[in-house]
Amino acid sequence: MEKQEILISVGSKIKEIRQNKGLSQLDLVGKMDGNIDVTNISRIEKGRTNPTVYTLFRIALALEVHPKEFLEIQIKES
Prior knowledge:
By secondary structure, the protein is mainly alpha-helical.
């Protein structure tokens, strides 16, 4: 699995969880500890940036989920 595919999968999972909770990206930023810009959330969800473990942890806390949920992705056999 390529790096870009992993980033897109993680970002898609974050977006799916956020939307299932009825939150906008702005709502998510408002619930997060520390400073983060809405454009950063957008880039993460689209797989355009590689978030730090700390950022993933903060997103998980704001979404009230375990960070491992972001990593539950299908691994393609080569």
